[in-house]
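#data-curation
PF: Archiving a pair of folding outputs for the training set. Convention for this channel: one message per protein, sequence first, structure tokens after, nothing in between. First:
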Amino acid sequence: MKVEIYSDIACPWCYVGKSRFERALAAFPQGGAVEVVYRPFQLDPEAPSEPRPHREVLAAKYGPQAVAMDDRLARLGAAEGLAFDFDSVLENNSLLAHRVLRFALDQYGPAVQSRLKGRLMTGHFAEGLDIGDPAQLTEAAVAAGLDRAEVTAFLDGDALLDEVTADIEQARDLGITAVPTFVFEGKWAVQGGQETSTFLQVLEQVARETAGEEQPGAVSAGGDTDAGGACADGVCEVK
């Protein structure tokens, strides 16, 4: 089974969804045979290429409700074992980070790409990592197992820019406007940072339906329903 996960590093629900899905995968009997690939998506493709404090950016967009949005996600994250330190979060354009993730996939494979994705998300949400800074991206990549010289050379040019841009456009063509979106076997789509138990049910259902050659569509799944604001129902939407 192949699962393609469309997500953005700067999306808190993508961080939650990654954690929950990985726990479901660990509990899925055929989990070892599931290939997981991360596909790029940008919630704010027009974001400037310079770091900005998250609190200021969110307040400018959503006003007083911004603090409540962050507080709820911090509480939810703590329950999932994930740290959110929104006072340290820096917002930046995520395109460069997506290019590094594509480089990791092409050169090292899905497992290393997933490890790097986790390192970038933890760094972004808990450690003040600037996802637009080549030097910090290099350190994150090395920590995930990539070769420093290879990453440095890659970031010195614009390799894979066209490929990543095409992937982002493909997501739009597929009708994806909110993340995370999980696409199973290129047929079934599930949106949102679902509960671990729901992801496990989806994996089991897709396995059955793949064997039965069912028609493509959306696999039934419930969602978190009181996140509020731009990141509601377990997803973050393009604004």
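PF: Second:
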Amino acid sequence: MKFIYPAIFRQDTDGLYHGYFPDLDDCLSTGETLDDAIENANEAACNWLSVELEEGGHLPPVSDPSDLTLKEGEIIRNIAANIRLFEGYDE
């Protein structure tokens, strides 16, 4: 199943990129480049969503990117996380 959540990225003074998901508590990523941070965000979102689904949690609603307020220097990207649902998930 594919889930798409917005992530917000910014570059710090040391040049590293940091990302977070407004909808996924404590789901963060870092990378030396924006592409690295996006790739790491994808992995972080997959892990976060997998754990939530395994524990029977409810996934948070997805924010509309146009509703999010960005600070100066921040950019937003939609991150697609493909999760393979486990057998018996729907039972």
